[in-house]
Design a protein that fits this description.
358 residues; alpha+beta; Glutaredoxin; Jelly Rolls; 2 domains; 6-stranded mixed sheet; disordered N terminus
Length: 358
């Protein structure tokens, strides 16, 4: 769920190289639309943040790493007590920015968890800075439940106010910041992929901190980064609604929509009655969603309560029940790559937030 994808700026480039967002950072930040959206999302950013070349293949010296700031809760620490970089001096620290409904983060988490399990006893600390994208991700109990469900055992810092995000000048989910035993920032990686390089640099820093260390074998987690061209992240709320092929959206009130006669690639449409809010579209009577996607897998963040009937190219595939705290649901999961129309028939009372793909 990197912001580059959300702004539809990487369409056609996801298949080029793992960690593709690193190479695009400067061009993305230079666009007026992206700049405004990033400013609205994260505030002014860290003006004195040390800068590394994102995705570099070797360690760099980028200055003192920013301290954790404005953390409202800690999870997976003894007594849920806070961690500080000052107290972690002498250890190698990996700061992982994530948010729990993000499929990009979920694909990266097994790698981060494997590094924590493999190298924690040798001096690696991982701090997962959970900076929320949606309102429901501000609820600490939701974060705690999702972390358990996802198997996250490393410490999690709940960054509800974006203060640590801003201190690092961060702009992506996921993003990795690697800090050496003296507290200096040495490597940055934005987005998915390039896990082998990150692990190599972790191992180099651990040996530098303790030359007598006997590190375990490298981890072996499959890289699930999509390498084909896939549909960009597609939001349903009006604040970030793009690639919408239907009629004009009515904000914050029930309205009736119709599917267009045909859909352009990567665009979506509504039918029936829906209420489109800033973050989500809430289904009413005879509500439907349609999307012409390119991907093997399709995910949708859903909340509320109700039922969704799923069809691909007009052929029913399955139904799913939606209930409880909003989370990521899998709509299409296939080993083969599709360019196809996805149609959802949605019962009243379901909140749809965000399509992502893999």
């Amino acid at each position: 769920m990197t912001l580059a994808i959300a702004f539809n700026l990487t369409n056609g480039l996801q298949r080029v190289v793992p960690g593709y967002t690193s190479a695009l950072q400067k061009s993305i930040e230079g666009t007026t639309y992206a700049t405004k959206q990033l400013a609205a999302l994260r505030g002014t950013g860290g003006t004195n943040t040390p800068r590394c070349q994102a995705g570099a293949s070797a360690l760099e010296s980028c200055g003192k790493a920013p301290a954790f700031a404005g953390i409202t809760s800690w999870l997976n620490t003894p007594g849920e007590r806070p961690l500080t970089l000052a107290n972690l001096r002498g250890e190698v620290v990996l700061v992982d920015f994530w948010t729990y409904s993000c499929i990009n983060c979920q694909r990266a988490l097994p790698h981060v968890e494997a590094w924590y399990s493999a190298y924690h006893d040798d001096g690696l600390e991982v701090v997962g800075v959970h900076t929320p994208e949606f309102a429901f991700e501000h609820v600490v109990s939701n974060v705690a439940a999702a972390a358990r469900q996802l198997g996250v055992r490393f410490p999690v810092a709940v960054d509800d106010g974006y203060r640590t995000w801003n201190a690092y000048g961060n702009e992506y989910w996921p993003a990795e910041y690697l800090i050496d035993a003296s507290g200096e920032l040495r490597h940055v990686e934005y987005g998915e992929g390039d896990y082998g390089t990150t692990e190599t640099l972790i191992r180099e820093l651990l040996v530098a901190a303790d030359p007598s260390a006997h590190l375990p074998r490298r981890t072996d987690v499959p890289d699930r980064t999509p390498m084909q061209q896939i549909t960009p992240e597609s939001y349903l709320g009006y604040e970030r609604l793009q690639n919408f092929a239907g009629s004009t959206v009515a904000r914050n009130r029930p309205a009736t929509y119709r599917f267009p006669a045909s859909l352009p690639p990567n665009e979506l449409a509504l039918s029936g009655t829906s209420t489109v809010g800033p973050e989500e579209a809430t289904s009413g009577a005879r509500a439907g969603l349609e999307l012409l996607f390119q991907a093997s897998n399709v995910y949708l963040v859903l909340g509320g309560t109700g039922r969704i009937d799923i069809a691909v190219e007009g052929a029913p595939t399955r139904s799913l029940e939606v209930s409880g705290v909003p989370r990521l649901y899998t709509l299409v999961h296939d080993a083969s790559y599709h360019v196809a129309v996805l149609t959802l028939d949605v019962s009243p009372g379901v909140d749809a937030y965000d399509f992502t793909f893999g």
